[in-house]
Amino acid sequence: MPFTDEQLERYSRHIILKEIGVKGQKKLMNGSVLIIGAGGLGAPAAMYLAAAGVGRIGIADADVVDLSNLQRQIIHTTADLGKPKVESAAETMKAINPEVEVETYHEFLTSSNILDIVKKYDFVLDGTDNFPAKFLINDACVMADKPFSHAGILRFKGQLMTIIPHQTPCYRCVFKTMPPKDAIPSCKEAGVVGAMAGVIGSLQALEAVKFLTGAGELLTGKLLTFDALNNKFHTIVLPPRGEGCDVCSDHPKITELIDYEQPVCSLK
Amino acid sequence: MRIQVSGETKEVKDGITISELIQEEKVETPEYVSVSVNEEFIQKSDFDTLSLKEGDRVEFLYFMGGGR
């Protein structure tokens, strides 16, 4: 189907880019992304992907909007306090771009439901705030062969990497096993500057756009770190995907998903 | 000798071990950091014994669990 005049205007700044163009915009509109976590990282990512016209966006979060969220979770407003985050997020996304289809999952993704959900999308974005979820998303995406963006933020720092399962190193290739509870400070305990969520969540949205359109090179085989206090972006080249990984090697030790024990560090 | 730590050139003592460098760099939560040298991961059990060489490129990879 050709673009309507309204679509040509709405997406004109994409269409004018040689790396996206009419073809790339079509790919975005035919594409789908699942965002897990409608919080600091998920908020800017969901807003930019809705604005970009990604055809179908899933958003998963079991929480409701809390006052302490609003310092960084810019998809929610003060009027949304107490509302399920997925509902508030969907309203903002639809307000930005009524053309996108938003699918909400007001539930925790667990070992029993995550595979079925990630399989419905082209690309997955990890915007969660705890290690059990991050390891579960990694393992599920590897098992489902689903490309995804991993990210983490803390204080004035953030980092992200993109994973094409069985082709590029996965999260577990770098961070083999989950750290014990309380070993690593969380944002709730240690704080995070709100705009850091904006920077890293936006970079994740860019990875989704690049993946769907084929523009440029994905952030695979690399961990991009950003330290706002000393203005440093740094790209760490990762060792190649090796035989050692418990989940993505050719002979994985982990072949079934489990729910990890470390309790959620909720960032309420 | 000179090595690269997180992309920056640093002057360190000859034959410095990973463990000594972790101390010198004041690495946070050192027991949970992943270390690569010249794009190869180093086993934790080798941190005390592996001596770095001139020109080695060292990276520290940290767990970062926040996101919401």
Report what the structure shows:
The complex is a heterodimer of chains A (268) and B (68). Chain A has 268 residues and is α/β, with parallel strands linked by helices. Chain A has a single domain (31-237), classed as Rossmann fold. Chain A contains ten helices and eight strands. Chain A has an eight-stranded mixed beta sheet, sandwiched between helices. In chain A, helix 7 (131-144) links the parallel strand 4 (123-126) and strand 5 (148-154). Mean pLDDT of chain A is 94; it is low at 263-268. Chain B has one helix at 18-24; strands spanning 2-5, 8-11, 34-37, 40-41, 57-61. By secondary structure, chain B is mainly beta. Chain B has a five-stranded mixed beta sheet with strand order 2-1-5-3-4, with no helix packed on it.
Q: What is the name of the CATH superfamily of chain A?
A: NAD(P)-binding Rossmann-like Domain
pLDDT < 50 runs, ≥5 residues of chain A? 263-268
CATH architecture of chain B: Roll
Largest interface: A-B, 40 and 19 residues
Strand content of chain B: 25-35%
Low-pLDDT residue spans of chain B: none
Distance between the termini of chain A: 44 Å
- Number of helical regions of chain B: 1
Based on secondary structure, the structural category of chain B is: mainly beta
The number of domains of chain B = 1
Strand arrangement across the biggest beta sheet of chain A:
3-2-1-4-5-6-7-8
Oligomer: heterodimer
Q: Please give the number of β-strands of chain B.
A: 5
The CATH superfamily title of chain B: Beta-grasp domain
In helices, the fraction of residues of chain B equals 10-25%
Stated plainly, the CATH topology of chain A is called Rossmann fold
Query: Separation of termini of chain B?
Result: 42 Å
* Rough outline of chain B: globular
